[in-house]
Amino acid sequence: MSFTIKFGTDGWRGRIAEDYTFANLRRCAQGFANYLNSQGHSGEGVIVGYDTRFHSENFGSAVAEVLAANGLHVYLTNTATPTPAISYSVVEKQAVGAVNITASHNPPTDNGFKVRDQFGGAIDPAGLMEIERQIPEAESDARRIRLPDAIAAGKVEIFDPAPAYIEQIHRLIDVQPIKDAGLKVLVEPMWGNGAGWFPRLLDGGKTQVTEIHNVRNPIYPEMIRPEPIRPNIDVGLQKTVEYGADVLIITDGDADRVGIGNEKGEFIDQLRAFGLLAYYLLEVRGLRGPIVKTLSTTVMLDKLGKLYQVPVFTTGVGFKYIAPKMLETKGLIGGEESGGYAFRGHVPERDGILAGLYFLDMMVRLGKKPSELLQILFNKIGAHYYGRIDTQFTGDRQAREQAILSANPEKLGGIGVMDLVTIDGYQFILEDGGWLLIRFSGTEPIIRVYTETTYGDRVQAILEDGLRVAGIK
Known about the structure:
Layout (H helix, E strand, L loop, with lengths): L10 E5 L6 H17 L6 E6 L5 H14 L3 E5 L5 H10 L5 E4 L8 E7 L8 H10 L12 H6 L3 E4 L2 H11 L3 H5 L3 E5 L8 H6 L5 E4 L22 H10 L3 E5 L6 E4 L5 E2 L1 H15 L6 E4 L5 H9 L3 E4 L3 H11 L3 E3 L5 E3 L8 H15 L3 H12 L3 E8 L4 H11 L3 E2 L2 E7 L4 E5 L4 E6 L5 E8 L5 H11 L4
């Protein structure tokens, strides 16, 4: 019996050499090839890119071999490439999709197989289910052509995605004022694909860009995983103070997510960063358009939507929901709690590099440090506080879900519960306008408990009550 491959929010992730093997990867690639060919895309282009994890370039080559053997024209990146650049290449090459070899922010033991559609965005849930269905049972059912032979036959083309992506960045933002501003910017690429990009984009002016953890190291020293949250970013926050930097820009392992540290070495969590980026587009740049958010992110966006008279759409968790909604509504900004933000005029995909540049542009245009920007936002819509706990669980998931549904708490952290929303997980709406969300991971035996509230001293108490509702305590 072969290993059953199940896709999560935007593809498949697994443990290298345990379930993430060349054999299973080739099966995945054959499933994607079957899916594309069944939609009439034989002979059309597909992008294949990869990150800096262990063996990623070889896994990418293996995928290219299978796709090429199935009659697709493969554009294979010439080096480890940020996810947003891979996604933009789909549009630039007028391809029908992409495969990205990355496990994003997972631990160093893992790697992944992410798929993208013709817009460079996440494939919707129905499409992911169809790809899963098309994955063959055995590796022997996966067609292959050796990479040198595929290149010689013109079936695989090695290309550099950087120039076209950089041109797109320059269309979206004028970086010259940032270069001229004289900022001291510390960049933390977390040993990943974001290394070298901010210096490349911002060199040549008064602004100084310094990087840490900017070489390939697949074991990710000084952090648990390349995810832009604490404690993984603690070294970066400490260095911000040591270097006297004005801001810390953090990109995750594949550079599609961003984290921000202020000039005091304090982390600006992703919900606050989302609020600031929306404020930047609406107030600082004067743009208008819908905001698309997952239910696990901030109600500050709802307040901004009312203030600037733009609609706010709430989806389930993951860009497989965000991307289609952004395309449908021509969203101005879309994002999620994990620090992934997408922008109108670009691909409907998270872009940590562009988000970081937008944040720097806001600093320059308003002449403010990050802590001052946050205060401006809070003065407009009130302070909001966020917390999250991830914990492993054992036993039957369905029984736990039924217990959560039956719990019916009147208060959480001493704040009254007004409603229960079950779009994706179990979200208890609180009387202060905040919320508690209990959600099961789609890829790991983990329960995630999140909260946002206007009471800074209640965050931990709400989370503790949430763990009790989830049956963890």
